From TrEMBL:
Location in or out of the cell: Membrane
Keyword Membrane (UniProt): yes
Primary site of residence: membrane
Protein name: BamA/TamA family outer membrane protein
Presence of the UniProt keyword Membrane in the record: yes
Position of the signal peptide: 1-21
Cellular component, GO annotation: outer membrane
Keywords carried by this UniProt record: Membrane, Signal
Domain of life from the UniProt record: Bacteria
Length: 602
């Protein structure tokens, strides 16, 4: 450190030595040129005035004043041309712009006198076929988002032109294009007419999918994912949905889907798919820290193309001071049809928690069907075995054994725009699993659960997102003590109510949690992305675990509030949260809890 300071001091002295030797410090140089200000006269809407300032050369070069009045007038002439284009885009084709320079003033005054004139109306839209196209194939103005008459706006015309080709591509014309566009303004009637000349191209039916570039992924698997029937009318939306599906498989670094030429004999257009495979094996790991749980780490490995048909085998292990686990899962896509996914999973856990100590093992097999891009449902069968060495709700009973057969049913909807950092959309799931006890004295019960999270972007710049979540569950049909401690409900901690330590919210025996028969938690976060790298998140969490599964409930709702820091990285946001309990309990709650992990809290 001392060496670094010495070098820095030497460098500073070397840089200032010439000035010191001369006995004086050079003064800062004033800007060279004629300083000026810009003024605007005329009835202008605030957003229009702001747009004019953004395109104005005189405004953007204020800090680089010209050397003469003539050069300033040249800037004004360039601005008049740019301003005229702005007004034309808004339908003010008769706008007049005058610019004057007060050369005697100090600083110079550049004044723009603007009369926008009337806004012209769009009164006629004509679509003309070209290249022998069928006129009946062309959409109506209403189908491309234009109403007549309406105030003219260039933006609406550009958007309508894009919609024009989109409509044709979605209706069996994959090669449709706009050959020409003419916009004519009539100054006598203050009206505008737009004429598009459209080459719709040949009408096409879906042909075969032709794959190229895959090496280990079986073509038969990819062909089974094709969502169209050969010979059906071509639809660009279906092709795009297929491209997104291939991309989501995580098997390819690049996916390019193009439409081939139409076969004159059959009218079919082949879909050409060029692929670049990625490595199918991945090792991943992570670390986290929570005040109430201590440090934690996880490590995983997966192969996403085990037998060449997109089969995934994954193994993972995680550990912290209170829990260690290992699990393995196997996924088989395209199980019955391309919409079904078979999953088998096994997990073993060792837990050393305040409420209980013990081990459990779970095996499940399920079949999930993807009904739409966002909605899916699953049904399965599983078995769970537990050995509870210590149960704080029954301190007199050691080494208790539990066994349950269960049949989970689940439906989920994922409409988020991003999995790691959603900005908008809805994530919802609901499940119900009947449990049947298999050991002596084992209880039978129904376990329904739900979770609902919503994301709403309030402000585009800076990015501010309101994220809310509510979740809950219950063990219906059995008393709390008849359910194994590792299946009871607990609240508090990073995943539920920040500010309260893990499992500390809900039924207690003294200072020790004993679990409940039901749960309700909720959260709200205001995610403010201050810069591209940094975000700030004030949040409020609440909820509790209740003794009984059904009302009346006996536990008060507990609230925790805090502030989070987000550091945005290519692998997702790094989360740093600090929270405090709003109803701090003596000898139970600390003044604050700290959490550090990767990804948003929900």
């Amino acid at each position: 450190m001392a060496l670094a300071l010495a070098l820095a001091l030497a460098l500073a002295l070397a840089q200032t030595a010439p000035a010191l030797a001369a006995g004086r410090v050079e003064p800062a140089k004033a800007p060279v040129g004629l300083a000026y200000v810009v003024r605007y006269e005329g009835a202008l809407a605030p957003d229009t005035l702001e747009l004019l300032k953004r395109v104005s050369k005189a405004e953007t070069l204020l800090t680089a004043p010209p050397d003469s009045v003539l050069l300033l007038e040249r800037r004004a002439e360039e601005d008049k041309t740019a301003f005229a284009k702005v007004f034309q885009s808004q339908g003010h084709f008769a706008a007049t712009i005058a610019a004057t320079v007060e050369a005697a003033a100090t600083p110079l005054v550049l004044t723009y006198r603007i009369d926008t004139g009337p806004q012209f109306e769009l009164r006629r839209v004509t679509l003309t076929p070209a290249g022998g196209s069928d006129p009946a194939a062309l959409p109506t103005p209403e189908q491309i988002g234009l109403t007549v008459p309406a105030p003219f706006a260039a933006k609406a015309i550009v958007e309508a032109e894009a919609k024009l080709t989109e409509v044709l591509h979605d209706n069996a014309h994959p090669f449709a294009k706009v050959a020409d566009r003419q916009v004519t303004a009539d100054f006598a009637t203050h009206s505008v007419a737009v004429v598009w000349t459209v080459d719709a191209g040949p009408q096409a039916l879906f042909g075969p999918a032709v794959f190229k570039g895959q090496t280990t992924v079986k073509e038969s698997y990819l062909a089974g994912l094709v969502p169209w029937q050969r010979g059906a009318p071509y639809d660009a939306r279906t092709v795009e949905r297929f491209r997104k599906k291939l991309t989501s498989l995580e098997l390819f670094n690049a996916v390019v889907v193009e439409t081939g030429p139409v076969d004159p004999a059959t009218g079919q257009a082949p879909i050409l798919v060029e692929l670049v495979e990625r490595k199918h094996r991945t090792i991943k790991g992570g670390v986290d820290y929570k005040t109430d749980e201590g440090p934690g780490a996880n490590l995983g490995w997966e192969n996403r193309n085990l037998f060449g048909g997109g089969e995934k085998l994954s193994v993972a292990a995680s550990g912290s001071g209170i829990e260690q686990s290992g699990e393995a899962a196997f996924d088989k896509p395209d199980c019955i049809t391309p919409k079904e996914l078979f999953r088998a999973k096994a997990k073993i856990v060792n837990e050393d928690k305040k409420a209980y100590k013990g081990q459990n093992a779970t095996v499940t097999a399920s079949l999930r069907r993807q009904f739409t891009e966002s909605f899916s449902a699953a049904a399965g069968l599983g078995y769970r075995a537990s050995r509870i060495a210590e149960d704080q709700s029954r301190p007199w009973e050691d080494d208790a054994r539990y066994g349950f057969i269960f049949a989970p049913l689940e439906a989920s909807y994922d409409g988020r725009d991003d999995v790691l950092d959603p900005q908008k959309g809805l994530l919802a799931s609901a499940s119900a699993a009947p449990y049947w006890g298999t050991l002596a004295g084992g209880a039978d019960f129904l376990r329904p659960e739900f979770s609902l999270a919503h994301y709403l972007k309030l402000v585009e710049k800076p990015g501010i997102v309101l994220a809310t979540r509510v979740s809950g569950g219950a063990n219906i049909g059995a008393s709390r003590n008849d359910v194994s401690p590792d299946l009871r409900y607990y609240a508090g901690g990073s995943g539920s109510i920040r500010g309260y330590s893990y499992q500390s919210v809900g039924p207690m025996r003294g200072n020790t949690p004993i679990g409940g028969g039901s749960l309700l938690t909720f959260s709200a976060e205001l995610r403010w992305r201050v810069t591209e790298l940094i975000g700030v998140v004030p949040f409020l969490d609440g909820g509790t675990a209740f003794t009984g599964a059904l009302p009346p409930y006996d536990q008060p709702i507990m609230l925790g509030a805090g502030l989070g820091l987000r550091i945005y990285t290519p692998i997702g946001p790094v989360r740093l949260d600090v929270a405090t309990p709003l109803a701090r309990r003596k000898d139970i709650d600390d003044i604050a809890q700290f959490y550090c992990s990767i990804g948003q809290s929900f």
